[in-house]
């Protein structure tokens, strides 16, 4: 990772920094220590009044329409600035679909006519918040958990791990266990499907990650007291103690393929060069909205220590010390903060894709495109300003 370049002190306006996640989008201005807004990644189609998640698109045309309305909502409801006056920094996962990147660029350049566009990888820029260049970044989001080691500023792509072990599966399991209860004199009220927003709120407000020792004895131990979550004056959702304590167990219980969040971290370390494993194991950074659950880091640490002594890893990975970084922000917007830092440096000027160049070349630089990976002149033309 390059050292920080001089902060742009010219009269140019601060860049807009956007991170579109599966569940929530973070948006704000470069150089600020927190996003201006964190909102659901939903777009409301004005013509039909339909409201849908961005990742529920049917085809590229539908995706273009969703992003068109969503970006308009960001700029004119929350940011209150003209898109034409500012550069844009997009914080994205390295696994972001190419068609999503290209459609987003098309919306921003063709419709909103932004000055320039700079895509930055979320796992890499998260380290800018720490001032370090080496760590294993564990992003526990809503749709999936992605583990990616970064060594001396370079992502070790062959070691990445991704599994659908994240907030969505926790909420799915939680919804199966919850019971809708009625107050006195309300026996005629029909059972209804519990809304996703209510499930998420219950997960955040009442559930926690238990210890590894208690997790092994969930059927025997005394659980914490139940909680009644009120929907209205007469209806309640009962969240019993066992449900509160076991809600996140799906992230740590190995499936048929022996995958869990801790095994993903160990498998990522195994795929890294031998001489990098020790320093990577002592530099773990957990980010993402689901990582904010109470007890998450403590449970991951205890699981890593237990698994490292198991028959599967004891010989292959002779590492017994694991350490975590404390990020200077809440887990759900650490990567956005990294994008904010990058957007406040000269990199946003020297490495951005300008509107004129995009309209001329009709092509978006992409690391998965061999034309850019193998052609130095082509990369230099796009990223040298």
Structure description:
It is built from 15 helices and 16 strands. It is of the alpha+beta class and 385 residues long. The chain has 3 domains: 16-127 and 332-383, ATPase, nucleotide binding domain (Nucleotidyltransferase, domain 5, 2-Layer Sandwich), CATH 3.30.420.40; 133-165 and 257-327, 2-Layer Sandwich (Nucleotidyltransferase, domain 5); 167-250. The strands form 4 sheets. The protein has a 6-stranded mixed β-sheet, sandwiched between helices. α1 (60-79) crosses α2, α4 (167-177) packs across α5 (196-206) and α8 (261-270) packs across α10. The longest helix is centred in the first third of the chain and has 20 residues, at 60-79. The relative contact order is 0.16.
Short description:
The chain has 385 residues and is α+β, with helices and mostly antiparallel strands. It has helices spanning 60-79, 98-111, 122-125, 167-177, 196-206, 212-215, 241-246, 261-270, 277-281, 296-308, 334-343, 347-350, 355-361, 370-373, 376-383; strands at 16-20, 24-29, 37-40, 42-44, 51-53, 88-92, 116-121, 135-140, 145-151, 154-155, 161-163, 179-182, 227-230, 235-239, 284-287, 353-354.
Q: How is the secondary structure organized here?
A:
Layout: E1 16-20, E2 24-29, E3 37-40, E4 42-44, E5 51-53, H1 60-79, E6 88-92, H2 98-111, E7 116-121, H3 122-125, E8 135-140, E9 145-151, E10 154-155, E11 161-163, H4 167-177, E12 179-182, H5 196-206, H6 212-215, E13 227-230, E14 235-239, H7 241-246, H8 261-270, H9 277-281, E15 284-287, H10 296-308, H11 334-343, H12 347-350, E16 353-354, H13 355-361, H14 370-373, H15 376-383
């Amino acid at each position: 990772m390059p050292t920080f370049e001089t902060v742009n002190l010219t009269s140019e306006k601060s860049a807009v920094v956007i991170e579109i996640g599966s569940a929530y989008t973070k948006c704000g201005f470069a150089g600020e220590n927190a996003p201006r807004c964190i909102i659901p990644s939903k777009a409301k189609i004005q013509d039909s009044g339909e409201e849908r998640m961005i990742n529920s698109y049917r085809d590229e045309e539908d995706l273009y329409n969703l992003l068109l309305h969503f970006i308009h909502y960001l700029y004119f409801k929350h940011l209150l600035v003209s898109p034409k006056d500012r550069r844009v920094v997009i914080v994205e996962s390295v696994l972001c679909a190419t068609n999503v990147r290209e459609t987003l660029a098309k919306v921003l350049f063709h419709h909103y006519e932004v000055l320039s566009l700079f895509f930055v990888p979320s796992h890499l820029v998260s380290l800018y918040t720490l001032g370090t260049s080496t760590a294993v970044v564990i992003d526990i989001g809503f749709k999936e958990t992605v583990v990616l080691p970064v060594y001396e500023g370079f992502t070790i792509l062959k070691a990445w791990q991704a599994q659908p072990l994240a907030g969505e599966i926790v909420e799915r399991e939680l919804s199966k266990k919850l019971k809708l209860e009625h107050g006195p004199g309300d026996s005629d009220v029909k059972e209804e499907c519990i809304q996703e927003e209510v499930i998420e709120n219950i997960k955040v407000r009442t559930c926690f990650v238990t210890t590894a020792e208690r997790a092994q004895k969930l059927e025997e131990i005394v659980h914490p007291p139940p909680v009644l979550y009120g929907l209205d004056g007469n209806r309640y959702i009962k969240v019993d103690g066992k449900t509160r304590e076991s809600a996140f167990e799906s992230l740590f219980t190995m499936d048929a393929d022996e995958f869990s969040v801790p095994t993903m971290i160990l498998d990522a370390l195994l795929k890294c060069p031998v001489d990098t494993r020790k320093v990577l194991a002592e530099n773990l950074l957990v980010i993402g909205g689901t990582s904010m659950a109470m007890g998450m880091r403590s449970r991951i640490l205890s699981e890593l220590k237990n698994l490292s002594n198991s028959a599967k890893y004891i010989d292959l990975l002779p590492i017994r010390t694991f350490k975590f970084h404390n990020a200077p922000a809440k887990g759900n917007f650490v990567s956005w903060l990294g994008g904010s830092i990058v957007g406040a440096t000269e990199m946003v000027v020297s490495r951005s894709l300008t509107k004129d160049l995009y309209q001329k070349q009709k092509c978006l630089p992409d690391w998965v495109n061999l034309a850019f990976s193998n052609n130095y002149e082509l990369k230099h033309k796009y990223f040298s300003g």
